[in-house]
Amino acid sequence: GRRGEEGRSLQKSRSKWVLMHANSAHKHALAEVLADPATLARVADIKAAAEVAALATFLTLMASQPDRVTYGYKHVVAALEQGAIDKMLLSDNLFRARTIARRKQYVGLVEAAKEAGAVVHIFSSLHVSGEQLALLGGIAAVLRFPLA
Q1: What pLDDT is stored for residue 143 in this prediction?
Q2: I need a labelling partner for 109 at 20 to 30 A (CA). Which of 1, 64, 87, 94 fits?
Q3: Range of the domain at 71
């Protein structure tokens, strides 16, 4: 039944759980835990691990099935318009563009990708994976189906 499904999805997410100590069970204790540098480092590691895995998938496909990936703003937009994006990879630098119009362009792109059912990964430009993504123009995508 419903409870069994919930239990299975909880078990699947176990690797993402972070066990931390709090002085109480009140809301303010959550702020205390989240302010702890050790907690932030562990949560950042989990986020970075997802980004590293997404980039690894992209690079593997680029080598083996290049028609299943795309990169660069125009190519990614074209793939999005065809409903082809499974995973979108963006550098956080893009959201710090000089012009507000450019920043809004990327925010709109992320929203459109999410609405189309794509998983969006925002990479830190300070992380090695983000540096690798920057070499591809800061934006790339793994496609649901091959595009010429």
Answers
A1: 98
A2: 64
A3: 45-143
